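Retro notes (design track)

What went well: tokenization of the new backbones is finally stable.
What didn't: we kept losing track of which sequence belonged to which structure.
Fix going forward: every design gets posted as structure first, then sequence, in one message. First example under the new rule, 203 residues:
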């Protein structure tokens, strides 16, 4: 199965474009496309990139002229202008590490994926857990008016996730960028104009 996936990657337009332009992953184009459409990240913004390794999204954010703090449970090769923190985004100690670098961010982005099991329902639920972990961090560090982007696999909990996130943003929608593979179950929640809700941080 992994061999088939690598073969499909080699035939993939965005795979080759990433190689050509020096991006660490084809996922860079997903963020480029979403940023072009939704104006999520601006020059001199402070951006938190969760689940960042191998660094494709952090590369894009740095190129946009923003300050980047990248977090991943796995190591990541250094990128100019990017501060990297090793940590599990589901753990409280990682949130404390993030806040120790910067207390507030203009945008929180997350392209984290769980370890794929091949079981659609299990993979969906694992991705939902990661998306909720990213959102929990965002609620603590995203500045009012800030933006949030997170990947989640489609499935039975998808509407529940949207309903949980939407009260916190003036603009909110699910979006699938052109660079997402046609066979992929992934979709991105995009929230703009963050607003803190009373008692929300206790959740």
């Amino acid at each position: 199965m992994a061999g088939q996936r690598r073969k499909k990657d080699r035939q993939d337009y965005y795979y080759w474009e990433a190689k050509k332009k020096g991006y660490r992953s084809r996922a860079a184009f997903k963020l480029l496309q979403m940023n072009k459409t939704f104006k999520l990240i601006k020059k001199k913004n402070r951006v938190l990139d969760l689940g960042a390794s191998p660094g494709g999204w952090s590369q894009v954010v740095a190129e946009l002229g923003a300050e980047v703090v990248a977090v991943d449970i796995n190591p990541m090769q250094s990128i100019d202008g990017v501060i990297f923190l090793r940590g599990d985004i589901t753990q409280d100690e990682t949130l404390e590490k993030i806040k120790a670098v910067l207390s507030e961010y203009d945008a929180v982005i997350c392209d984290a994926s769980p370890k794929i099991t091949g079981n659609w329902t299990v993979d969906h639920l694992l991705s939902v857990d990661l998306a909720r972990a990213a959102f929990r961090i965002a609620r603590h560090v995203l500045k009012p008016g800030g933006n949030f982007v997170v990947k989640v696999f489609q499935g039975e909990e998808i509407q529940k996730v949207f309903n949980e996130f939407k009260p916190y943003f003036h603009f909110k929608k699910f979006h699938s960028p052109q660079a997402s593979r046609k066979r992929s179950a992934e979709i991105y929640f995009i929230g703009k104009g963050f607003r803190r809700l009373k008692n929300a941080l206790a959740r």
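Added context from the reviewer: The CA atoms of residues 71 and 85 lie 5 Å apart.
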